[in-house]
Amino acid sequence: MSLAFLLCLLVLFVLAGIGTPIAHSMIVAAVVFLAVKGQDLGLAAEQVIQGLYDSFIILAVPLFIVAANIMNAGTISERLLRFCVALVGRFKGGLGHVNVVASLIFSGMSGSAVADAAGIGKIIIEMMTKGGRYPAGYAAAITAASATIGPIIPPSIPMVMYALVSDSSIGFLFLAGIVPGLMMGAVLMAMNAWIAHRRGFAVDEPVPLRELPAVTMTAFPALLMPVILLYGIYGGATTPTEAAAVAAAYALILAGLFYRALTLSNLYSIFLHSARSSAAVGLVIGAALIFNYIVASENIPGLLAGSLQGLDISPIAFLLIINVVLLLLGCLLDATTIILVIVPLFIPACRALGIDLVHFGVVVVVNCMIGLVTPPYGILLFVINATTGISLRDIIREIWLFVLVLLVALLAMILLPDLVLWLPRQFGYRG
């Protein structure tokens, strides 16, 4: 490991530590590395241009962002929410169950935990806290916890990024996320039911069963979104990037023509917000491409893989160690940075130990999503605090039990790879 690389890391951590955006920190650190090495500073721009130009799959990210923003702006979210209330609102802790089920359904459209929490999550929190039925902190905590499911069930923006750095099949990654996403929803609903009985939360007035068909038909066009998306990919009609374009177009047609919930001014705001979000993500991806070039030039992945080969370590032990490291990093760094900068360091070691990269990718994404609700950083906690005004102290006090059951689900995924790989294997995956 050269002095230039150590200086690069020092600059990165100092800039990030004083609050500089992580993308800017990585770009400046990369320029420092190139300058100390005496290399052409234009290499930084070259790596960004080549990386973005050669990676068609990256185009899926802004398309999924557009689809999610259209879903939030139209009445689609409200229709889906009424369907969830009719489905599970009749049980003890009903609105908590509605919260989780809504995230399971909405995750098939947004691919983003932040979009889930800031969009449909805000509506559910208002429903839960109305009339003092649920404590505000509890409503915010279960909303944050359930939003972590968003990037696990396809489509998934973090999985697109993982596919970029690992050269894994995005189609099989999407399939591998379905069972883990359902498992996360199940453990959150189980914890919600236990807390609801223990605290004596009131049972909400159930929607009459005779109204269920009408509510279902109203939500049915929106429920078709994930079906169309998955059929396009696994039926061979579209690539994942093309499926993202279909999802955005379908959301636009649904909200604008079928539900008539969009105006031209709303559409302008949606595209403007989507462009800003996409630019922010693109900047991080570009910075990560430069940084990954530096890491490769220093042969850091090879050194790590070589050191592991000298140790008598099993694949399960390696996965457990890496997940502890990622959980700790998740308390401080955002998921995008971890996936694009940290995870590529471990991929050669995974190959050397015979760890399936699709299994590893799903575990990494689940781990990063748990990091989004783990104090002190927990970006979803800040998002909900900013959109609802509920104090961080109240949210953090209630979040720990949900983090615990999510960690139990993560441990099951690590120890039982077949839970993750069963569905991809049904569609021909040979990993």
Task: Give keywords.
single chain; 431 residues; mainly alpha; 23 helices; 0% strand; globular
Structure description:
The protein has 431 residues and is mainly α. The chain contains 23 helices and no strands. It has one domain. Helix 1 runs antiparallel to helix 2 and helix 15 packs parallel to helix 18.
Outline: globular
Quantity of strands, as a count:
0
For the record, the count of structural domains works out to 1
Task: Profile the largest sheet.
Answer: none
Based on secondary structure, the structural category is mainly alpha
Low-pLDDT regions: none
Distance between the amino and carboxyl termini: 33 Å
What is the percent of helical residues? over 70%
The succession of helices and strands, N to C, reads: HHHHHHHHHHHHHHHHHHHHHHH
Radius of gyration: 22 Å
If helices are DSSP runs of H or I spanning 4 or more residues, what is the number of helices?
A: 23
Which whole number gives the mean pLDDT? 80
Strand residues, percent: under 5%
Summarize the structure.
By secondary structure, this protein is mainly alpha-helical. The chain has helices at about 5-15, 20-35, 40-55, 60-75, 75-90, 95-110, 115-120, 120-130, 135-145, 155-165, 170-175, 180-200, 210-235, 240-260, 265-295, 300-310, 315-330, 335-340, 345-355, 355-370, 380-390, 390-415, 415-425.
